[in-house]
Model the fold of this input.
Amino acid sequence: MPELPEVETTCRGIAPHITGRKVKAIVVRQPSLRWPVPADLPALLVGRKLHGVSRRGKYLLLGFSEGSLLIHLGMSGSLRLVAPGAPPQLHDHIDIAFSGRVLRYHDPRRFGSMHWQPGDPAEHFLLASLGPEPLEPLFDGEWLFQRSRKRQQAVKPFLMDSKVVVGVGNIYANEALFMAGIKPIRKAGSLTRNNCLALAEHIKFVLQRSIDQGGTTLRDFVGGDGKPGYFKQQLLVYGRGGEPCTVCALPLKEIRLGQRTTVYCTRCQR
Ligand SMILES: [Zn+2]
Done:
């Protein structure tokens, strides 16, 4: 599943190739994504010049002078740049053709989405209630400490709540909790200020490291048939249930917590 680092990598991968270019055509082969693709997308975009590409949480924002196109990659979506006239492959649902380059949306499971928001994209209903960006200074240990007071919820789903902080997906929550030595099932309200400082620091570390690794895949966004923006990572706990803890060698415990696979060390995490 594309997480924040993949979306950030996509943003950096496509931006230099389409920013400042005009939309020539929109081709919608399959409008049934998680939400129907707006039928007036061609009328809204064709002839408009793209001012820039940015990211908010896991949304990519294609900014035009009149508004923004919000793109979510869902469970299996990806964007790549192809040459005009390149034949579409299976699951290539939408083309946004710029002069000289086509931005092609591919999504086998069709859980992604495209929305048009006139004016300020932050006012869109999908973005309006989002918490801070994890890599920005507003998000820190003190923020987590204040937001977690009196919360009975387990700390892992608390971290994955986009109203608390955006973009901390399952992999990153597992990894950051291990690095901070905090058990995922602990009540968020029981975290000390020092726990929160460690957690915020490790969340920033795992996300930034992943973005840095993604940087090595940027050239994959242009040409070729590979899937851009997905990259292998060195993971300490996620996907390692039953294997030895990298610190104490005790087998890692795997449970379901809020329907998400959760892996932790019963000795190292308290
Ligand atoms: Zn351990």
Notes: The pocket of zinc ion is lined by residues 245, 247-248, 250, 265, 267-268 (CB under 6 Å). The helical segments are 4-18, 41-45, 141-148, 155-159, 170-180, 193-214. The mean pLDDT is 93.
